[in-house]
Batch of 2 targets.
Target 1
Amino acid sequence: MTAPALGFLVLMSLACAPGQLPRSSVRAANPGRAILLDGGDLLKGNPAFPTGTRFLRIIATNDFHGALEPRPDANGIRRGGAAYVAAAIDRARKECEPRCETLLVDAGDLFQGTAASNLSYGRPVVEYYNRMGYAASALGNHEFDWGTDTLRARMRQAKFGIFGANVRYTDGHDVKWIPNDTIVKRGATKIGIIGVSTVTTPTTTRAANVVGLRFDDPAPIVDSIGTALRKRGANFVVVIAHAGASCGIDGATECGGEIIDFARKLTTKVDVVISGHTHTLVNTEVKGIPILQARSSGRAIDVLDLPLRADSKLHVRHDVRELAVDTIQPVPAIDSIVSRAVARVSSLVNRHVVTIPVTLARQGSQYHLGNLIADAQRWAGKGDVAIMNNGGIRTDLRAGEATYGSLFEIQPFGNTLYSLTMRGAQLRGLLEAMLAKKAVDDHVSGLRIRYDPLRPAGSRLVSVTTADGSPLSDTKTYNVIVNDFLATGGEGYNLGGRATASRPLNIVDLDALIDYIMSLPSPITAPTEIRIAPVLR
Ligand SMILES: [Zn+2]
């Protein structure tokens, strides 16, 4: 295989790339509950089944995004990594034996997101999934990113089906090479599995990759196939859906989005919905149907227990288990798949990008590297303003040669950019929220902000000047570029609630940074001004 040029990576869309964890959700998702073995009381907080109850344990993942190696989250906690996810899955399997049958499924977006996966077009991810014994996966929008030929090659490599029941040719005919459903047997139990893709697929992968295809409303399709599967003897119907939701911090309340709407529309019985695509924590129920999503990039797994007795009145138990690598030992066989994949990309990771004359350190609240990254995002997103959270800037930009790998370590999350449409008054409210913290924890581009930290929170702004030197106008409309972490609620800024409109740009933050610094005259001069400054009095 020929390694694609750097430009290939830069151009790839990555609409639902791995995001940063909101800090508060790490606190809420107690790592003590995390992945720790808990043999007797399998799912704390859920009712225990009576002794002797046999059940089907469904273990599920979603949005792995090629995250073969563990990565630090926004709190610096190393999470995910195939060998560790494998250990968590094995543990979830073993802890319920012999009372359970187990089924391992995924809700899509397997390959796209890291050099180690991307430069092998997802091969090592399928190798890992094969080894783990996945029964099925949903067809994620990013499965199309390298074109249908590559997708079909991965489908041939996979020992499991990759299902998209709502994918049709534009003339309405079913796409034969994309399977819709399957029945798998576990002991005497037959489990019908239906996979569906997000209806937003055409706008979340490059349009050229899905020409001629359409993505229909999955609810009536699932109703119809589910009925057929039960007629064929399925005891359970499981939907694996690359379609998501956003919930409150507990993952259970205030849920809304595509998969919630889907479940509400169903008219036939579905036992479980495994969700993906939004990279969120979802652990809720709609009309009695459990809906789960385990964040992304192997940072969590879904575990769900269905009693096997057909007449059982027992309630289904379900949980999303957080996965921090410190709590588990990696599985050696998977570790070796990862090591080989990582070794193959070392030449890319070592690729020269630019030379940096002076180290740009992360230091204090406002620093030059933060300005540079905010500028890169405003430039890439063609915005009036950009806002970058400091928590997403992971290390210094050191003087000397900047390689793809060293830049990757600065912005390792693969966050994607959003363009938010905000009136000046809405933007002013956002800035007040940023200034209400104990310390300013963001950088801006396209704004100069002066504030009085001694005033009450909510009224600290003294002056806001835009890029052309004019004051921020409450009635004017601005395009504000942020990453998906902020756009989807990160830092508690409620950007979704503040903005008039929100549009994903399919630009990875690292690509924006690399493209931007390569466009600058050499030697690169860092933007040194303090853009968010307190007034002295
Ligand atoms: Zn997706």
Target 2
Amino acid sequence: MLNARRSIEPERAVASAVAFYPAQPRRVADWPSVWRGFFGERLRNTIYGWPEPAFDVFARTRRVLGFTVHIVSDPDAVERVMLGNKANYERPAIARRIISPLIGNGLLSAEGEDWRKQRRIVAPTFAPGAVAAMAPLMDAAAEQEVAQWPQDCARLDLAAAATRTTMAIIARALFGSDPRLVDPAAARHIEAMLAAAGQARVVTMLGLQDLDPSPTMRRARASRKWLRDTLTQVVRERGPQGGADDFFGNLIRALHGQFPEAEAAELAVDNAITFYVAGHETTANALAWTAYCLAAQLQLQEECREEARAALALPPGERAAAMPTLNQVLEESLRLYPPAPRWDREALAPDELAGVSVERGDLVSIWPWLIHRHRKLWPDADRFDHTRFAPDAKARMHRFQYLPFGGGPRVCVGARFATVEALLILARWLAARRFTVPPGWRPDPVGTVTLRPRGGMPLLAEPA
Ligand code: HEM
């Protein structure tokens, strides 16, 4: 069971005068029946309609289309799945069936020795020194984006701005600035696939994934084909020697050195899509939600702006560490709006988690969306309070009660890249504009594979 002393923070001084409870979807009083998840808003939005008790209990077992699913929120149990008894938990076969037509056996979906080899190949690119070396290109992309913004007070879709910027950064940092990767069509295709994620899960559980004739699924299949074809073309043009001396070139060469030729060529495409999509979509969401949280708290925004302006005098590689308040604001925004709101594992052998018996083949569902807002883990859980991440408070946290980037050996390989990138972009945004939430408007969070604001994040932006 959970060690209360480690995981529950003591009372602490409140940072701003007015409490801010950021927008979240409707909750219901009690557990709805499982079939409700197959229709309407619950199908489109995984964070909609959760029952209040889900934010109080540490484990709950449900039967979904013949699968036994354990929703586990106890940090000790999550640690067991992700780290302590990791060998017993793989990505579920059902999840692989959903994502493998897009990302094949790339780093995100591979298991065992295939995974280890790929992780070893890419890890050096994301080490702290390597990320610091990419800081100037991250900063330049942020500056270019801000330079296009209107000078007067205007509604600005910060979600779209974030996507443009993070796409440009991933294309430059990893793929030698390939222009196909910054094509606005790519963003539309990714959006179409994400919109279909809930439905894709249900039809795949029913074994009907390629048969569903609905417009949503047809669009998603066409978008998947566009992405796969585009990245296959990029890989073909580079050839087995990898072409340029960049991340992608090195990846292609290393794959050809360690896997048979046909498999290496396929894995190059799988990883191109993996890094392209995972490498910008999540960070873009983190940026949009952080911008919203700051737009709703002007005093805190002012404090972060001062910090950002001072940091801009430093070389880009040194800025992230020079903005402690902005770091805490980003961490708190990732708590309230985890860009990856859920993932699953499948048990290979029986186990026990949070007092619940787990059988071979059972699914274990881990929801940062629930864990990060759990009432037994976070005082006043739905309230924004960045001081939760002040160094002394952070040191008292259970390391598996806060997992925006996952945990254990499968922890996000791009976590540092994403954090530095987000902080550098926010610094440029804040130095240039003062953001406010338009009167009477609230964002509408939608959970699919990621956590997006439906219809974007149209904040008011005026010169700062
Ligand atoms: C705020 C931004 C990001 C968030 C919240 C995020 C979140 C996550 C999470 C939760 C996982 C683990 C999922 C699981 O265990 O099932 C993960 C894995 C992964 N992420 Fe990220 N990510 C972010 C940015 C990035 C970036 C920038 C890249 C690459 C440039 C990236 C590439 C990956 C890859 C390749 C994996 C699979 C790692 C493995 O299985 O070894 N992510 N990410």
